[in-house]
Design a protein that fits this description.
With 101 residues, the protein is mainly α. 86% of the residues lie in helices and 0% in strands. The chain has helices spanning 2-46, 50-71, 78-89, 93-100. α1 crosses α2. The radius of gyration is 19 Å and the shape is extended.
């Protein structure tokens, strides 16, 4: 019985610890959804091919981050920021380790 309570308590504490991350990501998720919906509507209305629609979506998603990185707005460690972005968007541990080496 104690093992079950201990396990559930750990799961709850892990969930609470992650709630800050969820809260921080909520505006990002909303903005990404807004961009995707807008581009899907554009593609459907203009008979744009899927490749072009995907390119437009990616360009819009990266516009602000690229501006911040290029302008180096308050970042003393651009290499560290670039490493963090690679880590966030690596598909798996193998890809991540290949980028590090």
């Amino acid at each position: 019985m104690w093992c079950i309570v201990k396990t559930l308590a750990k799961e709850y504490l892990d969930w609470v610890a992650q709630s800050g991350a969820r809260k921080a990501l909520r505006p990002l998720r909303a903005r990404l959804r807004e961009i995707c919906l807008s581009e899907i509507q554009y593609a459907m209305g203009s008979n744009t091919d899927p490749e072009r629609a995907a390119t437009r979506i990616v360009s819009k998603l990266l516009a602000q981050p690229m501006t911040v990185i290029k302008d180096n707005n308050g970042f003393d460690d651009v290499e560290g920021l670039s490493g963090t972005l690679r880590m966030l968007f690596a598909r798996d541990a193998v890809e991540l380790s290949n980028q590090a080496g």
